């Protein structure tokens, strides 16, 4: 694959920093956020398919980042939760897949907000007309993973009232396997989880819309989210969670589905599918840096509002 998209992306980021005044109240470093994205969506990682070389590089990158966080605890050895599974379609066995987990104790509560994003993607496939065969998964889901790391950094320096668990999950593309492994081997009682917040595809949207799915089941969060979004430029929309609506119902479409199956409340932040979904063209050149940064800050502010306003138990 040509390196031209990466060079264009770098030029765009430089231009964006020179001509954009950060919004008041933004807590996430745009520069760090986009640096994570550029690495995770690079050709070097070859699409991050579970247990392939690029996936292991992504794992090491995330593990190194978690190791440097202040005030974060490792509840699994070296922040790594290993798991095994069998691909139901191919019957292939996968051993030593890995979720990367960090825990930040709450100042007032042992209830846990589990924040998730999957770092795997689908690897290398058939080349398209331009000869590109690497599915870099810039939006799906290098975007959510990059946001997860910067949200982890924020909470490591700003202790929340409730405990925060940061979980970079593997093997989502093979059937939510990392999320299923985590909830089946959760280090605490599942009823200690206040909420799962999952991020999957938050890097681009031509309508400036970010969806939050889950309030159909958990309406107690809707007013908090709506009020928080009023202070942001992104249009936060509710929906994609109505039973019986087929593919329009996202309740089981990403890692939050494993939490839903265990009756754990969830909120899922993501955009609607775009033309590059699950194609080699889902590259960093398609990421909208302004939207991505604002989306991450909005999600963080939603987490902060929930942490502040939900009753401490």
TrEMBL record:
Gene Ontology molecular function: any one: metalloexopeptidase activity
Domain Peptidase M28: 99-301
InterPro entries: M28_fam, Peptidase_M28
Protein's GO biological process: proteolysis
Cited Gene3D superfamilies: Zn peptidases (3.40.630.10)
Protein name in the entry: Peptidase M20
Origin species: Algoriphagus sanaruensis
Lineage per the UniProt record: Bacteria, Pseudomonadati, Bacteroidota, Cytophagia, Cytophagales
């Amino acid at each position: 694959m040509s390196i031209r998209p990466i060079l264009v992306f770098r030029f765009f980021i430089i231009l964006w920093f020179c001509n954009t005044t950060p919004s008041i109240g933004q807590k996430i470093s745009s520069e760090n956020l986009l640096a994570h994205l550029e690495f995770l969506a690079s050709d070097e990682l070859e699409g991050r398919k579970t247990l392939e070389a690029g996936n292991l590089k992504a794992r090491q990158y995330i593990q190194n980042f978690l190791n440097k966080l202040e005030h974060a605890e490792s509840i699994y050895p070296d922040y790594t939760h290993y798991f095994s599974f069998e691909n139901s379609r191919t019957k292939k066995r996968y051993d030593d897949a890995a979720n990367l987990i960090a825990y930040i104790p709450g100042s007032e509560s042992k209830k846990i907000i589990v924040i998730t994003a999957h770092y795997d993607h689908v690897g290398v496939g058939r080349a398209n007309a331009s000869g590109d065969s690497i599915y870099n998964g810039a939006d799906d889901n290098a975007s959510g993973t990059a946001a997860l790391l910067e949200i982890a950094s924020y909470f490591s320096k700003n202790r929340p009232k409730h405990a925060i668990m940061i979980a970079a999950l593997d093997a989502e593309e093979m059937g939510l396997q990392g999320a299923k492994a985590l909830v089946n081997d959760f280090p605490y009682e599942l009823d200690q989880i206040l909420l799962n917040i999952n991020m999957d595809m938050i890097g681009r949207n031509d309508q400036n819309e970010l969806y939050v799915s889950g309030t159909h089941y958990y309406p107690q969060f809707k007013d908090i989210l709506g009020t928080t979004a009023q202070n942001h430029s992104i249009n936060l929309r509710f929906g994609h969670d109505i039973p019986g609506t087929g593919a329009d119902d996202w309740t089981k479409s990403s890692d939050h589905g494993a939490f839903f199956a265990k009756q754990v409340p969830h909120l899922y932040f993501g955009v609607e599918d775009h033309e590059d979904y699950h194609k080699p063209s889902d590259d960093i050149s398609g990421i909208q840096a302004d939207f991505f940064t604002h989306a991450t800050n909005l999600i963080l502010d939603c987490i902060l509002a929930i942490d502040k306003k939900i009753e401490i138990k």
